[in-house]
Task: structure prediction
Amino acid sequence: MQDYGFQGDGFWFQGGGVSVVNNISAGNQGDAFVYYTRGLVTNGAAAQFSAANLLDPSIANGASKIAVNMTPVRQFTGNIGYASNSGLLVRYNFETATNITASAPTSTFQDSKFWNNNTAVSIPYTKNAVLRNLTLVSNAATKPSVAINGNAVTNNIVYDNLTISGFVEGIEVPRRGNVTIRGGTFNNDYDIVAFPAIDVRNVNITGQLTTPKIAFWTDLVPPINVSASQYFASDTVLLNFGQFLNQRLYNTLQTANSIPFPVSRTDLPAIYVGLTNQQLLNQYGVSLGGAIAPITAISLPNIVGLIAPAV
Result:
């Protein structure tokens, strides 16, 4: 029925081709700002966006129109959203993108403030996005659970110089694709939180950071429509800030003697059950996260996980 925008949202955008500058949205039962970038369907056909109205028409590859979910957000800057369910919700932007390289078109959300929302920023089904110079703050007596979250599809995200304070978890790292966390100021129970990847993932935590609290949790309960076998995908999390230079972070289940799947489960081949990572690698060429933590990996304050020495 395409019955959209009924939850009490401040601004609802059905596509990204609009400049959103210096607005304030407050006290919404739903969300302060929502991008729901799926073209409305009329007579069986989804609306499309005119390539002539793109800032860079070349991304349409010569076509006169482009899918709404492949249209970059034109501009989002100087906005404030507070006292709502979330400050900013972005769904489906670049959802079907296959180009997730550094040169891919992106949507940038920048120089904005979101405070005292249940969630500051939520980006499910979103790819190729940059969150830059955002201030995400809560001073609620009971801390909200997560400042920035996504879902199993979220991919290729840059978190650039964010200020996040007052949450249980700051950034919940996407579980696939390329992720960069560059600089920032944090004051949360856990500032950067990663769960095991469900597809190839490369994370680089870099820039001017002062002892962020990082947690690489070992929770192997997969998201919806994901099987446990996907946890064998290559998962590289690098630390490049402060005392760290190209050092790799492993979760504690990635040691050679750890047994990632001690009991049988319907989403895992029986041959993997009860084997250590080393046995899985020797017998079947797989291991949790695609790699075994070296025996020289160590634990450090403010980090849940194991840090490999610099190579």
Remarks:
- DSSP finds one helix and 29 strands in the chain.
- The longest strand covers residues 31-36.
- The mean pLDDT is 96.
- The two ends are 56 Å apart (CA to CA).
